[in-house]
């Protein structure tokens, strides 16, 4: 099965919109062209050179990773590692897409996946984010002969917080708008009030101007999202029995680190989960949490947990986030059953000694 890269990314955007991501993050398509044809996808945790090499060997056209290749603004590409990655990507025509904190914060993201594996119900975010801003879009078209003057006119009156882009046939089809010959199609997006005011201002510009649709960009998405989840098991489970379940789920972790309260471990029922690095969420956990599962806990965070009498299980950054691979595979295969999806697990940089 061959799909356009844009179609795959559009499908993932429905569950993990870039609007969920942290402002410092770098998600979405990082290398490649949206028009590229995709028949095989590799899912990995990190965009390392070995992952790209694996893609080349498997003749995969798309690498989807959890961690981004770049986080800071890049001004110079002089790192030999980055040069090697870009060389492999260019020579083998491999595109790179990243889904990071937009997956971490999604109501059906990585923490949700882990919580379901653990058997948790009554889920709530440990730390909720603000709801998605209400962004609207409108699509208009003008005749090709009118477009140059119309473009100049709009440049003078377009509000700073309203974005504009030209649309091709593929993008129009996503909005159920049919391409018409000898017409240029434009999409404007912004807050509802600014957008409506702008569209009203251009409505009398020319008889050739046509309005095609007006809608909310994220109207079908959950309006709340956040970091970490807290929930409960259907009944209390003895600590050692629950650890057997944990070891089977986080089988890639290796050695677990455990912060125990001064009292003997009680049966586990109320659980907090935050994949990756969740030590900063300790202060937001409910006081009656029986166990908090996360990774990358540092010394002072462990002391804080000890002081608050909260049992914390550090399953490692790699150990908790490697579950991104089966999550992505399940999402992709549900939408595109014939798409070939394979894993590159890489390796945990921390080794037993």
Highlighted features:
353 residues, alpha/beta, Udp-n-acetylmuramoylalanyl-d-glutamate--2,6- Diaminopimelate Ligase, Chain: A, domain 1, Alpha-Beta Plaits, 3 domains, 6-stranded mixed β-sheet, 5-stranded mixed β-sheet, 12 helices, 17 strands, globular
Report what the structure shows.
The protein has helices at residues 5-15, 49-58, 80-92, 101-104, 110-118, 147-157, 169-174, 192-202, 239-249, 299-307, 317-321, 324-335, and strands spanning 3-4, 28-31, 37-38, 40-44, 62-65, 95-98, 121-128, 135-143, 163-167, 183-191, 210-216, 226-237, 257-259, 268-273, 291-294, 312-314, 340-344. It is of the alpha/beta class and 353 residues long. The protein folds into 3 domains: 3-104 and 323-344, Udp-n-acetylmuramoylalanyl-d-glutamate--2,6- Diaminopimelate Ligase, Chain: A, domain 1; 110-130 and 224-317, Udp-n-acetylmuramoylalanyl-d-glutamate--2,6- Diaminopimelate Ligase, Chain: A, domain 1 (3-Layer(aba) Sandwich); 135-216, Alpha-Beta Plaits (2-Layer Sandwich). The strands form 4 sheets. Strands 7-12-14-15-16-13 form a 6-stranded mixed beta sheet. The chain has a 5-stranded mixed beta sheet with strand order 2-6-5-4-17, with helices on both faces. β5 (62-65), α3 (80-92) and β6 (95-98) form a beta-alpha-beta unit. The longest helix has 13 residues, at 80-92. The protein is globular and about 80 Å long. The two termini are 45 Å apart. The mean pLDDT is 90.
